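## Example record

The block below lists the input lines for one assembly entry, exactly as stored, with component labels intact.
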Amino acid sequence: MNVKKIHLPVALAACVILLTGWTSSREDIRKESDKITTLSARFSQIKKMQILAKPLISTGSFYFKAPDSVRWEYDAPVKNILLFYQGKVRRYRPASRGFNEDAGAAIQSMNVMMQEITLWSKGRFSESRSFSSELMAGDPPKIILRPRESGLAKIIASIEITLAPDRPGVITCINVNEGEGNTTTFQFNDVKINGELEDSLFRDPG
Amino acid sequence: MTAEIQQQCLLPFSGTPRRYIHAIEAVLPGRVQLTVMGITVIDPPADKIRAAIITLEGLVLFDASAAADNVTIHRALPPFDGREFALHLMQDVRFIFIPPAGTLSSSGMIDNGSAICRYEGADGMMVDVIVHHDQTWEIEQYKGCGKPLRRLKSYSPKNGVPDLIELSVHKPRRYALRLELISAEPLLPGAAE
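Predicted structure tokens for the full assembly:
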């Protein structure tokens, strides 16, 4: 398995939230995605596992700036910042003086996954090399992603994206199903589109 | 006095089932630095452990149970998918949370007033547990007169649970873990299944 896939869930959450504005077709997705230059949101990450008696909840903020800058910032329980800027992925943790940066193959490998994000941010799901997509009409509408390769399917069984029924194109929830009762659910709120986001938000926080 | 010292040496180890969640900063061979979360369930009376490692984004990298020396791997992704990794991780968990195996061969008080106990295993493995007045502790594992195999220091205890544990491992591979406590809770017996 490629190490890149270790970071797939956050990559998927980061890119899929950009699917604003779709109504009933892939073409709608592309049209709406093209209108997005920036996006910010608050998120709650709810982790369920057999080893946990109650869900483990993380919170933070997500930022995107076209064409491919992402800031995934956790407030709790573990403060850290995941940045994708100018083709490079970096993770930073607060230290006594500034920030420490995670290093090694695991972080470097995320570059490939972030490149997948740029496809999804354009609404081009069918061009994804990792996932097939299915649009489920309904109230609320949903997108189901399934791994194309059996190797990836052993890591992630499926991803379900829920859109707000009353606010066209806004993603309210992403559920990552790893199988064996392990799930990670991202709930988004306070979504702001095309606001002012400085480039410095996506650069080295140190 | 001896009984009191021996009781002090058990301070690092909860005798009842507990679940711990830590943020773990790992410094691994090859200058690899990694930040993950660790979930550990221990059931000392049943001699059972369950340990999981997840990324900060929630992906499960590793999840396994151990009862005595039997390890069952529930899920493991590369590079955490080797049986050796699972066995070694469970040894780390035992070193941190479970009283040393073996016989208490000696105990006493060192010059600074800290209690010290030495445990000797049948395989020649030695573990020294040192508990300081401020309720912090150090644990060292070694064999013969060589370098320590494992060394641990705890910091900032609250209700007997340290906010921070630093573990350094020297053999068979060198790595260091910094465990920052997120939560610790008591459990009902049988929870480490």
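The interface with chain B takes residues 1, 3, 6-10, 13, 45, 47, 49-53, 56, 58, 72, 74, 77-78, 80, 82, 91, 93, 100-106, 155, 176, 178, 180, 182, 184 of chain A (CB under 8 Å). Residues 35 and 194 of chain A are 9 Å apart (CA to CA).
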